């Protein structure tokens, strides 16, 4: 079995775990920017330690100027632009409508990977991507909590802005693996690659704290329980990206990205274990999970 695929599955599981923990944390804080900032700032020391343990510091100097630009760009558009747009979509139109579009990210990865990196396009890859995307979309359009209400009617300006925000986040999350893949394949040092991306994102994120509003949000985070949830969630995000960068160093982005989208399956599993009282597990959800499993099967064995 391809080592890159194993790394991708481990990354998907870690992403799902981070989602569950961060969700609990933001329930205490009442906003999402702080969670994004903590997850990004935690990534720098995490990957600095990982780089030291792996003995990969010397590979940092082997990255070309273009490589630094690609990794930094990937970090900024994925960790900053993608997340901020994604959270903006949640705020404007809710999780149900926006997540269906956010899950289209792997489709952009496949298109860009095939078009610009000459990655192979096979029938099994097409079937796998379509199954995973269909399953993730089916799950995402289900209600996420018992108390969540569906909205109907014609699209308002607010909803249109939300839809475009979700589409923009999906594009950023779909393109970033391609940028990482270009460097990671030759560098073969996932910790160093991720560290460069996290440092770039942290520098940009630090600029936000020039504004008093964001400093106040971070300063108001005093609840130990909220801090614990956000720190654990942020640490799991770093672990997930370690596996993601490792996977991209071994397998094409057009395969890694769809497998990473199976985090939907793990999210619902972890939610069943921890959030059974607020999550729905309906026939629609089960069908979506099965479609995701079928898609992953095609990517693994065909």
Q: State the helical fraction.
A: over 70%
Averaging pLDDT over every residue, what do you get? Answer: 79
* Percentage of β-strand residues: under 5%
**Number of strand segments:** 0
Instruction: Calculate the terminal CA-CA distance, rounded to whole Å.
Output: 12 Å
Q: What is the H/E order?
A: HHHHHHHHHHHHH
Task: List low-pLDDT spans.
Answer: 144-151
Counting H and I runs of at least 4 residues, what is the number of helices?
13
Gyration radius, to the nearest Å?
19 Å
Overall domain count: 1
Q: Which structural class do the helices and strands define?
A: mainly alpha
Shape, per Cα inertia axes? globular
Tell me about the biggest sheet? none
Secondary-structure topology with pairs:
Blueprint: H1 3-29, H2 33-54, H3 57-60, H4 65-102, H5 105-116, H6 123-140, H7 157-187, H8 190-208, H9 212-219, H10 224-248, H11 253-260, H12 263-274, H13 283-301
Helix pairs in contact: 1-10, 1-11, 1-12, 2-8, 2-10, 4-6, 4-7, 4-8, 5-7, 5-11, 6-11, 6-13, 7-11, 8-10
